[in-house]
Amino acid sequence: MDEIPVNEPLETRLEEPTGSLEALDAATEPDEVAAVAARWPLCLSAWARLGEEALDGARPVEAYAYFRVGYHRGLDRLRAAGWRGMGTVPWFHRPNRGFLRSLQGLGRAAQAIGEDDEAARCHEFLEQLAPDPREES
For the whole model, what pTM was predicted? Predict the structure, then answer.
């Protein structure tokens, strides 16, 4: 039988900076989304949305860069929250979605620029981290 390490969290929940999600919800123009990222650079949801907008606008290299920022900042935040490579980062917890959307988007952008191996790794990692059903944010 596999043992679960006592000191490993089964689930990690991130938090977004106070006020950032509300500002992002109110942003309707790309420059407003960029302003949220500039004001709250730790807001992973802002980086994910910038990436999604770039990908939707057929700018996959730009999208890749935005998603990469959200992904790497998210890994740093996960580690600071106690994640050590084990356990889930559930989608149902809204503040986790910025990181998860960045990871998902990084895979999509990687696919768009021909980085098939990275796209596959991102997909696999996302399925491991957030096996719960995904809904739109």
Answer: 0.90
